[in-house]
Structure formats: structure tokens, C-alpha cells
Design goal:
It is a single chain. By secondary structure, the protein is of the alpha/beta class. It has helices spanning 25-35, 50-61, 113-116, 126-131, 133-143, 168-177, 186-193, 198-204, 301-314, 319-334, 346-353, 357-361, 375-379; strands at 2-6, 18-22, 45-47, 70-72, 79-82, 94-97, 121-125, 151-155, 181-185, 210-214, 220-224, 285-288, 292-293, 364-365. The strands form 4 sheets. Strands 7-8-9-10-11-12 form a 6-stranded mixed beta sheet, sandwiched between helices. The chain has a 4-stranded mixed beta sheet with strand order 2-1-5-6, with helices on one face. A two-stranded parallel sheet has the order 3-4. Strand 10 (210-214) and strand 11 (220-224) form a beta hairpin. The longest helix has 16 residues, at 319-334.
């Protein structure tokens, strides 16, 4: 979508002018990944209008491959307006104008499925599922288990205002269960599914190999199940695959699982764990606190976190470092006013992610920190 940011704080009824920007969960992640040095493709539909042209040009400018984006001659590009207040406050307002948009008309028949499946990771969002019945059918097609399917990353992104009925939470739970990597906020899971805490969320999501539970300013916990994770994979990120790209898998596309879909696991889907459910010895469950951030705007932070985690995952970094990169990428978004922010340079982020726990706990990041030449200069570590 094209996003209109307010020229000053206040109610939408009172703001006299807005600044044009770009927004959208999946395109945000693609832009940040491309800016971080990865090959990224965005697959979508835009209207045959100036807003659609602007979106494609801007996203291409980030280094994203937009060759699979289709132009709809009959439907407009979606837009939305928002206030400057935090999305989580009662004062925050968002006005969506995306009903009947080009993106809402995405369907299995008019999207390049081969392009969508061509990457190592396919990132999807629950927002797209809410746009229309055809969009939901597309999401179900892309998350269906099949040989050769890329790892599916799914950000729940529950937005009640986008759902026309009360089925949203049920649909999002269905899609999350079919993904390989899931991002969900603890507060989001509580509002959508009535769940609170990592254990309850994990029990509701028995399928994903990795579940990342975000706890806002507190930090985030990543749980990695024994089957389907990224450990012990080859240089391409996927090990022991045959000619079809999937090795040793059954008809459901997952290998060595029992009748419940998990091999050698306990009733909760995690093997050999203590009473606290955390396997410290091999890092299967890791909590990383978020650094202190001087926040400018919260919008886009969740997408940036997902991009940082996926970037580190593609680089086969340890689970702790994936979470730290997620926090650092989110901090880049939190310290800028728009939906999109350039992430820290890779060596810069790696230096910060390698800090010991005490130094990480003292990390404080403010506006402009990603432009500092040295990590020590922008990190304000007492």
C-alpha cells in the first residue's frame, strides 16, 4: 500500500497534511532483507495508477526484484492514513482504503506461484489473508505442505479492523499451524486466541519448526523444535534433499514424524525438556531481552524484527543471534518515523549481536544509531 503519514500529531480529522510513503507487511520485510544484502522478491498486484507506479519504483529502489508484480487495469492501489500516535494506544487511528484494491484481488489463478516459491524462504502475513476470500485461498495454497515447498515464514499480524467477520483468529491459527517459522506477539496471541505465555502458544501451534513469541519492550523468545529446524544444514540452508528439493520426507512433506506429526517428542512437541520447558543445553528455547530504544515511531518494527531474524536464519547464525538481529533491525525501525528504515550494516549488527550478556543488557539505541561508523559510538554502553 501507499501510506500517508501525518504532518503533525493529532486526530485524523485535525491533521491538515500528510507525507506519502510506502507500507505493507510483506513488502517491508522484502525491502529490509534486500537492504541487508539478501536477494529478495516481492510478489503482489498494484493498480494501473500513480500510486502503483510509485510503490513498484520505490520497492525496486531498495534492491527488491519486482518482476512478478502484476498491474491490475481495473482496480486501484490500496492506500491508508494513520495518526502519529502509537498503534497500541487508544488515540491511534488508521483509515484503510483497500477494499476492492488490486492487492485484494490476488488469487491462485492470477499470481505467479512459481516466483513465490522460488526462494529459500517464503514470507507471508496474516494481513493478506484478511483482504478477501481469494487472498485467503492463495494463502492456503502457499502454506499447503508439498514436496519442494520453501520454508514458510508467517507473521500472524492480527488486525481485527481488516476482518469482515469473527473468523479471523481461527483462520490465522490455521495458517500459523501450516508454517515453518511463526512470529506472534504475546499480547496478540492473548487477544486473538485467548492464549498467554510461550507454553500455551506452543501447545496451540504444534506444526511450526520455530515459534518466535514477541514480548514488546521485554524481548522475545524463540522456540526451535527438533524436526524441521535449521541446524546441520548445508551451504544453501537445506540439507539432505533429493532432486525434488526435499529429502527423506513423507507425503505430508515432513520427515521422520510420528502419528502426531512429531518424532521423538513429548506431548508438548519438545523433547527432553525440564519442568520449565527450556532446553538450555542445546539452546532449543532462547529468550533475548530487547535493548533500550529511544522510540520515534512503532510502526514497521514488527516487520523489521522478522526481517532481522530471517536474515540471521539465512546466515545460519545461532538462535540467540537471530533474536538479537531481530531486535537490532526493529530498533532501526523504531528510531525512524516511517514504516521502513535502513537496517544496520551487517558487520555493525554482527558486532552488536556478539556483545556479552552484560554489554547487551546496557545497550541503548537512539535516532541515527545505524549511521554511526563504529558500534561503540552509537551504542551508548555505560
Amino acid at each position: 500500500m501507499v501510506t500517508f503519514l501525518p504532518g503533525r500529531p493529532g486526530r485524523l480529522a485535525d491533521v491538515p497534511s500528510f507525507h506519502r510513503a510506502i507500507g505493507g507487511a510483506e513488502s517491508n520485510v522484502a525491502c529490509v532483507l534486500a537492504a541487508a544484502g539478501h536477494s529478495a522478491r516481492w510478489v503482489s498486484r498494484v493498480g494501473a495508477d500513480g500510486f502503483g507506479q510509485h510503490l513498484v519504483e520505490r520497492i525496486t529502489g531498495y534492491g527488491v526484484d519486482t518482476g512478478a508484480v502484476r498491474t491490475d487495469p481495473d482496480r486501484p492501489t490500496g492506500i491508508y492514513f494513520r495518526t502519529a500516535a502509537d498503534r497500541d494506544t487508544d488515540a491511534h487511528e488508521v483509515a484503510y482504503y483497500r477494499a476492492g484494491s488490486a492487492a485484494s484481488a490476488m488469487a491462485v489463478a492470477n499470481v505467479d506461484l512459481a516466483a513465490a516459491r522460488s526462494g529459500r524462504v517464503l514470507h507471508l502475513s496474516g494481513i493478506t489473508a484478511a483482504l478477501s476470500g481469494t487472498c485467503l485461498e492463495l494463502m492456503r495454497e502457499l502454506t499447503a505442505p508439498r514436496p519442494g515447498r520453501p520454508l514458510v515464514s508467517f507473521d500472524v499480524n492480527h488486525r481485527p479492523a481488516l476482518w469482515a467477520d469473527a473468523d479471523g483468529p481461527r483462520v490465522l491459527l490455521e495458517l500459523a499451524r501450516r508454517a515453518d517459522i511463526v512470529f506472534v506477539g504475546d499480547d496478540e496471541a492473548r487477544r486473538a486466541w485467548g492464549l498467554h505465555g510461550g507454553r500455551a502458544i506452543l501447545e496451540a501451534l504444534p506444526g511450526p519448526a520455530i515459534v518466535v513469541v514477541k514480548q514488546g519492550r521485554g524481548g522475545a523468545t524463540a522456540f526451535e523444535r527438533d524436526t524441521g529446524g535449521f541446524a546441520d544444514r548445508g551451504a544453501d540452508g537445506f540439507s539432505d534433499r533429493g532432486a525434488d528439493g526435499v529429502g527423506g520426507r513423507g507425503t505430508d512433506g515432513f520427515a521422520d514424524r510420528g502419528a502426531d506429526g512429531f518424532g521423538s517428542r513429548g506431548t508438548d512437541g519438545f523433547a527432553d525438556r525440564g519442568a520449565d520447558g527450556v532446553e538450555d543445553a542445546d539452546g532449543r528455547a532462547v529468550f533475548v531481552p530487547a535493548p533500550d530504544v529511544d522510540v520515534v515511531a512503532h510502526v514497521g518494527a514488527g516487520d523489521a524484527f522478522a526481517a532481522g531474524f530471517l536474515s540471521a536464519t539465512l546466515r545460519r547464525l545461532p538462535l540467540r543471534d537471530r533474536l538479537r538481529h531481530g531486535h537490532l533491525f526493529a530498533a532501526a525501525a523504531l528510531t525512524t518515523p516511517g514504516d521502513l528504515a535502513t537496517p544496520p550494516a551487517r558487520d555493525h549488527a554482527d558486532r552488536l549481536a556478539a556483545l556479552d550478556d552484560d554489554a547487551w543488557g546496557r545497550l541503548r539505541l537512539g535516532p541515527g544509531w545505524t549511521q554511526a561508523e563504529q558500534a561503540e559510538e552509537e551504542a551508548n554502553i555505560p
